[in-house]
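User: Predict structure, ligand adenosine monophosphate.
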Amino acid sequence: MIETAINCCELVSHMEDLPYSELVKCYETMSNTTRRTELTEALVSFYKKTPIKVLKKATYLNQGKLYPDYLGIEIGVGERLTERAISIASGLSVEAVRQLYRKLGDLGSAAQQALESKKQYSLYKETLTISKVYDTLDQIAKTSGEGSVDEKLNLLSGLLSNADPAEAKYIVRTAIGKLRLGIADYTVLDALAIAFAGEKEYREDLERAYNLSSDLGEVAEAIASGGLKAVRSIKITIGRPVRPMLAERLSSAKEIIEKIGGQCSAEYKYDGERMQIHKNDENVSIFSRRLEVITHNYPDAVKLVQSSIKADRAILECEAVAVDLQTGELLPFQQLMHRRRKYGVERAMEDIPVSLFFFDILMVDDKDYTIRPYTERRKKLQEIIEVGERVKVAPNIVTNHPEELERFMQQAIQDGCEGLVVKDLHSSYKAGARAFSWIKLKREYRSELTDTIDLAIVGAFHGRGRRTGVYGAFLLAAYDSEDDTFKTTSKVGTGFSDDDLKTITNELEQYKLPHRSPRVLSEMEADVWFQPALVIEVIASEITLSPIHTAGRGRIRQDSGLALRFPKFTGNIRRDKAAEDATTVNELVEMYNSQLKKVEASPEELQR
Ligand code: AMP
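Assistant: Predicted complex:
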């Protein structure tokens, strides 16, 4: 038996495939570490032994997926069906499998134990390879229609019958969409740069390719097969979303002008849903800020694009804003969330129609505009958009006077906007980057915070009394883009209705971890830890220095971080934001500084 297994492995590597067990080893190392460097090292050594042919597949599998996110293809196996498949593969009854699941709280571990209890192994067990696992899961994902349940069951139980217990654990987690190893895209890019270009420094090239293609698998394959040259030839393409450029924040017009260094363009900042629109003749696809396909939610936006963009092929960005049918006024962002539904799309469209405010152009007729300066992009945008009642280009002014900026800001707020986004006239479109080429200027902070803050839930505390059975409070963290970590800033327990707590508790279940995520820096011990994924909106009275929280530690005072005083949940779960889109540590530092300035400012200044 053992000999056969060894022979199989050798055979497999010659065939340019890799035993799935190698991937499992990497998973085991990664789930047992709390150090980011070890995560990267595990990935590097895995990538080094992975044949090029299966590198793409392995990269998607690592992320618990089969394809890049934007294709929206899920493996889609339900838990009931998986329990049956485990039962077939292990010989245990479905009830016994279910009991294991209840006891362990994870179907993957239940599969592992079920197979461990198996008395006899089949003599003709096939060595599972990465391709075999990937292709079978792919077949499962593509099976639909009549008889598909049986077909899926056959495929999955077949796979599990050939798996050893540890393999079964990860196959099951992948199949039901709960692999969640928490490997950030940027960790994968680091690992690819080290494994195939020899140095982490080359990550920038990989990052650019990834930001333009949103496809880690493609980047992995390119670097391994054609080196940096192949990576650099990955281009912006219609139908494949570009990772969006993001804005930094400063608190005064004067600081913004100083930072940009002279003339800049200030545009209205609309409070709606960001859309990246890909137009290929009459074909229109719309991607959200998180790059999900949301075309089906917005048939009205599709029609507006078809009738008002004067270019055959283009990639554009706009903010879609809900408008009040009665008054024509812009409505707050929350209204738009009603448009994100599976059913009743037409009705929602009639109740909450949107207007589109365009602010950037990334490609026109196969020319990459991301590399061109803002002024050129803006000019082109104005050329190709036929402005109408519901389609506009975001209004702007070009100025180097802080007072003028302030006035424009007041006008923007009066017109129902959140403030301004001030842009560097010379900057290219920096895909995937949060940079000072775009700077947000929102409503002035008073001595109290009026702005909401979006934070990722990284931990929770069990509820007491009326809240028994759900979580009673949450540990929240800001995102630090400098080292790709989440740093705590608040423990919040107010503002939640009973229903909110139930919803959040249920939703967090899928992100539960046995220990703190290596990407989370916390000195506070939570009862339960989560992968940073769910973002909630909070308000607070002010930002204070804190000995316990890690956000902004050492930035204002040595040994102190930043904490929110009297934090309160606003009722908004920011499903439109990924954890990495949460308020950043830099933004918190900036907000803290601006508070101080306000306190120091004279009452007259505050009035102005
Ligand atoms: P925030 O979500 O607070 O980081 O602010 C940046 C967001 O503002 C972008 O992701 C867009 O969705 C939105 N936005 C609204 N108007 C504009 C504009 N004129 N230019 C760029 N972004 C805008």
